[in-house]
Amino acid sequence: MVLQSELYDITVVGAGPVGLYAAYYSGLRECKTKLIELYPQVGGRLISMYPEKEIFDVAGYRRIVAADLISELSGQAMQYDPAVVLNERIANLRVLDERLIELTSDTGAMHYTQAVVLTVGAGAAIPRKLDVPNLISLEGNGIHYFLPAFEPMRGRKVLIVGGGNSAVDWAMALENVAAEVTLLNRSYTWTAHEAMVDKLLQSRVQVKYPYYGIKAVLGEDHVTGAVIWNEKSGLEETIAVDEIVLSIGMLTNIEPIRQWGLEIKGGGIAVNTDMSTNLPGVFAAGDIVTYHGKIQLIASGAGEAATAIHSAKEFILEGELGR
Ligand SMILES: Cc1cc2nc3c(=O)[nH]c(=O)nc-3n(C[C@H](O)[C@H](O)[C@H](O)COP(=O)(O)OP(=O)(O)OC[C@H]3O[C@@H](n4cnc5c(N)ncnc54)[C@H](O)[C@@H]3O)c2cc1C
Questions:
Q1: Minimal CA–CA distance to 246: which of 136, 130, 138, 131?
Q2: Could you tell me if 73 and 57 are in contact, meaning their C-beta atoms sit under 8 angstroms apart?
């Protein structure tokens, strides 16, 4: 028997940008809301991976530093006083009855809710690595996968590997901080936004593409250089660098979520256009979801959050009408 006082209308699991926006929207729709996050702070990837990076593609801001966006999103979310639970990883989800879902955290705490919106990001994401000599042994000594702060890069020679938004954004962010920035893109095309690529090509970043990759990392205690090559011509060159940033994507593991009975497709939770999943009362939004045309951006995640909350509210109302 669950006490009415312990039962929430909507519980949002994961307090990244999408979860924060979902919590705000849930309050706006006058739902009794709980927000649960495994880390001691909210913010998701924006805080854990790139707090100082500028973001150029969220609605309403021409540019905003990631940590500042999280501060705005938190302020927006807290307007309606959701219950906020930090330091708890939701380890299990069970649909007990119609409009009664039980969430168990790894601390043993139980949470009860009529509907859930899962905004857990891309699961336990691990940066994609490269199988090149010296790379793994120099991790932490000049090999980076994220740049939580830019100041340590001041005056350094930095090599960035990748052709996506993160690689291009890092390169632009370091243009006036590092002594030199070189960016290698192995692909013939860019996955970064076109306008950002245009800015990159006009910047003082040395861009080597297409077909440019890294063949070996040089250095004993710390990175001192890299052997780079053109995979088409086979030509190699050795360059002096102090820091190497690999920005070539993430490998995700959402196995724990699969065990909750959710349908998983291509590494994400399969959702319908209303953001419902295969489990009644369970909705999802943000990087964790997959559907035809899905893009992993804050802006699209926020739209999905609004849809998910709307659908969850409809689900709750249907239950009340049926009673
Ligand atoms: C380097 C980099 C740069 C980027 N730059 C941009 C950009 O400029 N613009 C843009 O739009 N997008 C950018 N992105 C993508 C953007 O960060 C993601 O689309 C966004 O973070 C997705 O938000 P989310 O809330 O779905 O997931 P996340 O940000 O991953 O947040 C998920 C949250 O859920 C929590 N969580 C996970 N599992 C559980 C659990 N079981 N229980 C409780 N809590 C849990 C996590 O701790 C985390 O706080 C970038 C990504 C990277 C890696």
A1: 130
A2: no
Specify burial of residue 39 (Cβ count, 10 A radius: 0-12, 13-18, 19+): middle
Q: How far is the CA of 14 from the centre of ligand 1 (A)?
A: 9
Q: What is the pTM of this model?
A: 0.87
Vertex 321 angle, CA 320 and 323, to 5°: 65
Nearest of 131, 207, 129 to residue 168 by alpha carbon: 207
Tens digits of residue pLDDT in 76-114? 999 999 999 999 999 999 999 999 999 999 999 999 999
**H helix runs in the chain, sequence order:** 17-28, 45-48, 66-78, 165-174, 194-202, 255-258, 298-322
Q: How far is the CA of 218 from the centre of ligand 1 (A)?
A: 32
Check residue 323 and give its pLDDT: 62
**pLDDT range class, residue 208, cuts 50, 70, 90:** very high
* Token output for 202: 């006009």
Lookup: tokens for 37: 């996050």
> Measuring from atom 48 of ligand 1, which residue has the nearest CA?
44
Pairing of strands 90-97, 100-105: antiparallel
Task: Tell me the mean pLDDT in the region 43-53.
Answer: 93
Report pLDDT digits (tens) over 28-37: 999 999 999 9
Residue nearest to atom 7 of ligand 1 (CA): 55
CA 2 – CA 319 distance, rounded (Å): 17
Structural domains of the chain, with CATH: 4-125+252-322 (3.50.50.60), 127-249 (3.50.50.60)
